[in-house]
Design brief:
CATH superfamily of the largest domain in chain A: Winged helix-like DNA-binding domain superfamily/Winged helix DNA-binding domain
Number of domains of chain A: 2
Mean pLDDT of chain A: 96
Shape of chain A: elongated
Largest sheet of chain A: 3 strands, antiparallel
Strand order of the largest sheet of chain A: 4-5-6
Number of helices of chain A: 4
Low-confidence stretches of chain A: none
Structural class of chain A: alpha+beta
Largest interface: A-B, 38 and 37 residues
Oligomer: homodimer
Number of strands of chain A: 7
DNA sequence: CCGGATTTGTACGTATGTATT
DNA sequence: GAATACATACGTACAAATCCG
């Protein structure tokens, strides 16, 4: 229940609610969230507050939003094992705007940048790879 | 220059401008961005549009915002080498709300979750570690 | 294919609260 | 205490994408 007297922003309270429903499976992967208008009405909020809540979940990689379509719980894609070669290293970071477009990455999805022993680098979508060391 | 006739949202155009100034060093690490009010006036936008632009940059990990203080270009912290042990693997993802608070992570900073050979896992701040394989 | 309904995106204005300097 | 700066929240309006009959 969203309570204005609590010392937590209303949109954060709504995000907490939705996050809980997702983690408990009440909103399963692929399932649509109620529309922004519906969420606003059922929780007594204005639409901007609802949008802020959903923006939080998007940044966490929990949901995906498509214009004119709606917001859905993100489905986990399979991660390909990627062996980290001897003498190489890897860092995780958020993609640049260009990288997000190039790799068709959703909001809230980091990239993995591998630097090989020869100094060259490669960038991989963070939700599709798992670095391994056999 | 921000141009309403262009087919790109005004707040995205402003984000592009600021992103460029950051990448070119005109806004160096640690440097403060103009205040939201100033940016709004100088570019002829309303403050909500300016806030959207800055929110984009925050999500990309380019800037940090502190209430009552302002927004500054993020300074890169040193990354500690972390050897990926034999038989382990690692994934990159965005932190949960709790993890962000626990590790005191800025917006736009992913985490690295290592799964060890015995099945146990550990989570590291994505901006402070570099996975290595000697 | 078209049109209408639904849904999210963009943008403005306003007001008030709270943290930092 | 005052000034500055960001955070939260409401309301409104129109644009644009998608879906469905």
């Amino acid at each position: 229940m969203i309570d204005p007297r609590r010392d937590r922003a209303l949109y954060r309270q709504l995000a907490d609610l939705l996050r809980q429903q997702i983690s408990e499976g009440e909103l399963a992967p692929g399932a649509p969230l109620p529309s922004e208008t519906t969420l606003a009405q059922t929780h007594g909020l204005a639409r901007p507050a609802v949008r802020q809540a959903i923006a939080l979940l998007r940044a966490e990689g929990l949901v995906t939003t498509s214009r004119g379509y709606g917001t859905r719980v993100r489905e986990q894609v399979e991660r390909k094992p990627l062996e980290l070669p001897t003498g190489s290293s890897a860092v995780a970071r958020m993609p640049s705007d260009a990288e997000r477009i190039e790799h068709d990455l959703d909001d809230g999805v980091p990239v993995v940048e591998v630097q090989f022993a020869d100094g060259s680098t490669a960038v991989y979508p963070g939700d599709r790879v798992r670095l391994t060391r056999p």
